[in-house]
Amino acid sequence: MLLRETKQWSPTETVWMKKIHHAESTIHGYTTMDFPAYDIPLGYDLVKNSWVHPYGNGKVSDLILIYPEQLSDDPRRWCHITFPNSKDGIQQYFPNEREKQSVFKFPYEAPLIGYTNRISKYTTWGIRPEKSNCSRNNLYIFRIRSKMSEDGKVSGLYGVVFQGFNMSIGSGSEFGFQFRMPLQQNLWVASGSGRSPIV
Whole-structure pTM over 0.70, yes or no? Predict the structure, then answer.
């Protein structure tokens, strides 16, 4: 008689699942910015995914970007990003080990505090090895067009940057990022790697 260990033929797998609540439409954007001018504040409309007038058809400056001319004694090319609305901002999100294995890498709801209204990104040009504080592995949560109610509660448009920021320097200088905006505090509809869970 041949005896077999039944456990190896009937393995038990644990699957961790997240439930999507309050599914809604999202705004998707892949933004690659060819800077129309240097050393001056340039407004960018995330809802329209365009520079504001006179460089595009955007209406609201959700972001202000400044791309300085490169200094002769500094190999770094910088891009400074500010959020002009005092309650708007951005923060980096660090997923836990379980979230790292999921397409839903962000928390269910965006945090209400912890935002900064300025970040600066750089990459080097003309030296090897290249150095940069941009990474496609970094995740960010942002809030724009914030308003405060009479009882002190802040609301706005929330979104995520899910593949970090990138800078390309060469014949042309570009600054880009991919983002999703669920228009509410619910971030799970904005998560994913390349597509939204909501169609």
Answer: yes
Contact indicator for 93, 42 with CB cutoff of 8 Å:
no
Element (H, E) at 123: strand 118-124
Q: Which of 50, 17, 46, 88 is nearest to 182 (CA)?
A: 46
User: What's the CA gap between 128 and 115, in Å, rounded?
Assistant: 34
Mean pLDDT of 20-24: 52
Q: Which of 197, 186, 152, 142 is nearest to 21 (CA)?
A: 186
Long-range contacts made by residues 191-197, C-beta under 8 angstroms, separation at least 24? 191/103, 191/104, 191/105, 191/106, 191/160, 191/162, 192/103, 192/104, 192/162, 193/103, 193/162, 196/26, 196/28, 197/20, 197/23, 197/103, 197/104
Residue position matching structure tokens 């705004």: 27
